[in-house]
Amino acid sequence: MITVTDLTKVYRQGKREVRALDGVSLTVPEGSIHGIIGHSGAGKSTLVRCLTLLDRPTSGRVEINGVDLTQARSDALRTARRRIGLVFQQANLFDSRTIADNVGYPLELIGVDKAKRAERVQELLGLVGLPDSGDAYPAQLSGGMRQRVGIARALASDPDVLLFDEPTSALDPKTTNEILDLILSLKHLGNLAVLVITHEMHVVKRICDSVSLLDAGRIVESGPLVDVVNTLDGRLAEALLGIPAHNPVDEVGGTLVDVLSSGSKAATPVVAHTSRIVGSELNIVAGSVEHLAGATFSHLRISVPDGTDPQDVIDELRRQGADAKVTDPRDLLEEQA
């Protein structure tokens, strides 16, 4: 388990202070995958460096299975860092070393003998789907294969936590899905807690159990995936369940209303039922269906014609178990600009 408590990092630029992290707290239990998302400049890179103590936090704690890395010094800190396996955006392999030597490098550093090292390396290469690549060099492998090697190397020291920093942003869609499937399989390996730093919504949708939104150094939304998307008011819900772009100016009059249904309700024709009850034709103008963390979510945008009270429609949709709210077309145009 990884536990981060009130983590703060302040950089000083002359007389000016830059608060890159501002009281970040989160917990990632073993056997789970937690995603951290945020735009460029949100503090994701600083968080990675502070979690691994490559950059010491100004205040706060980073604990791995109850051991506070921020209090560790020298040899104790090096030992504690081995509990975190780190996979970078680029695999950062040693070009002059074979794949086997790259994977075995962490074991070499801690003095594991050659025979045991070779056995562990072969085991790890088999785990990531590269059992016959030990004698190759990084330049001979594709980007996805190099990333698999990076994952194998991160696992070499038998860590408690795996930390991925933008693991798929340099990969094509097919290779991305292959790497995500591999990451998904790792959470069941031993008692690993997996933390993924990303700006890609596809990554969160595909593999994460829970997610946090980092903005200007603060976590502004956080929780299990099925909880954070089960409302129309959250930024995470909008990002993960967004409706494809359309021009609301071209819609046929009326008032736009967004409708969110989940679970068994997502397969229920709530809009058609509501249309009959309020006695008005409600047109679906856009929508999307997502399957996240084992649950189905339906996000629809409907047009309520003039002469029908939108609040009556919203009240009826809510009676049927959906969430609903009026959407301002001007906000949609700003989002799509």
Automatic annotation (TrEMBL):
<keyword id="KW-1278">Translocase</keyword>
<dbReference type="GO" id="GO:0016887">
    <property type="term" value="F:ATP hydrolysis activity"/>
</dbReference>
<dbReference type="InterPro" id="IPR017871">
    <property type="entry name" value="ABC_transporter-like_CS"/>
</dbReference>
<dbReference type="InterPro" id="IPR003593">
    <property type="entry name" value="AAA+_ATPase"/>
</dbReference>
<protein>
    <submittedName>
        <fullName>Methionine ABC transporter ATP-binding protein</fullName>
    </submittedName>
</protein>
<dbReference type="InterPro" id="IPR041701">
    <property type="entry name" value="MetN_ABC"/>
</dbReference>
<keyword id="KW-1003">Cell membrane</keyword>
<keyword id="KW-0029">Amino-acid transport</keyword>
<dbReference type="InterPro" id="IPR027417">
    <property type="entry name" value="P-loop_NTPase"/>
</dbReference>
<dbReference type="InterPro" id="IPR045865">
    <property type="entry name" value="ACT-like_dom_sf"/>
</dbReference>
<keyword id="KW-0067">ATP-binding</keyword>
<dbReference type="InterPro" id="IPR018449">
    <property type="entry name" value="NIL_domain"/>
</dbReference>
<dbReference type="InterPro" id="IPR003439">
    <property type="entry name" value="ABC_transporter-like_ATP-bd"/>
</dbReference>
<dbReference type="GO" id="GO:0006865">
    <property type="term" value="P:amino acid transport"/>
</dbReference>
<keyword id="KW-0472">Membrane</keyword>
<keyword id="KW-0547">Nucleotide-binding</keyword>
<dbReference type="GO" id="GO:0005524">
    <property type="term" value="F:ATP binding"/>
</dbReference>
<dbReference type="Pfam" id="PF00005">
    <property type="entry name" value="ABC_tran"/>
</dbReference>
<dbReference type="InterPro" id="IPR050086">
    <property type="entry name" value="MetN_ABC_transporter-like"/>
</dbReference>
<dbReference type="Pfam" id="PF09383">
    <property type="entry name" value="NIL"/>
</dbReference>
<keyword id="KW-0813">Transport</keyword>
